[in-house]
Design brief:
Number of helices: 4
Radius of gyration: 25 Å
Structural class: alpha+beta
Helix content: 55-70%
Number of strands: 4
Number of domains: 1
Oligomer: single chain
Shape: elongated
Order of helices and strands: EEHHHEEH
Strand order of the largest sheet: 2-1-3-4
Length: 176
């Protein structure tokens, strides 16, 4: 049984379901998965997650300090300058990643997929909703990218917790 179906409209308004060769759908999904994993690997190589977390932690601390100084009506311009510098560095790192991964996506989406699967241009693949071969690629890459990113974030947090020194709060009360 073929899970993927192609729907093509005819002038009479009826929709005929034509089985899409499974190898075509699997090829598109595999290309999308490879792209998603490549993009995540490149992102982690360009923007080291531990350094990004350190910058985020520092920015949060600066924000708290600035709020305290604002409440006390003290000068906080030096804190604001450092916060702005860190935000700029974060944005710069994000754009570096995009400058690498977006051209790869555009090459795949606008050049390679139409060259390989252009004969299916007007047809749709029905999986939850009608998808063209390009939208199947996009949504597959998006879903795999999100899932892998969340798994890696959870893994990184577990590793960070193991590295962090354990703090024990013990409250001793004397019994009288």
């Amino acid at each position: 049984m073929n899970f993927f179906l192609l729907s093509t409209g005819n002038p009479g308004g009826a929709i005929a379901a034509i089985p899409l060769p499974t190898n075509i759908a699997i090829a598109i999904v595999m290309i999308a998965a490879a792209y998603a994993i490549l993009a995540i690997v490149l992102q982690r190589k360009i923007n080291h997650p531990s350094k990004m977390r350190e910058m985020q932690t520092r920015m949060n601390a600066l924000t708290k300090e600035m709020v305290e100084k604002m409440k006390k009506k003290e000068d906080y311009s030096h804190l604001q300058a450092e916060h702005t510098r860190l935000m700029g560095q974060t944005m710069k790192n994000t754009f570096k990643t995009m400058a690498v991964t977006l051209p790869i996506f555009a090459l795949l989406y606008y050049v390679m997929l139409p060259m390989g699967f252009g004969t299916f241009k007007g047809d749709t693949i029905n999986i939850i909703m009608p998808l063209t071969y390009q939208s199947l690629f996009f949504w597959t890459a998006f879903a795999i990218g999100m899932i892998v990113s969340m798994l890696l974030m959870a893994r990184d947090r577990r590793i960070e917790k193991k590295k962090a020194p354990a703090t024990v709060n013990v409250d001793f009360k004397a019994d009288n």
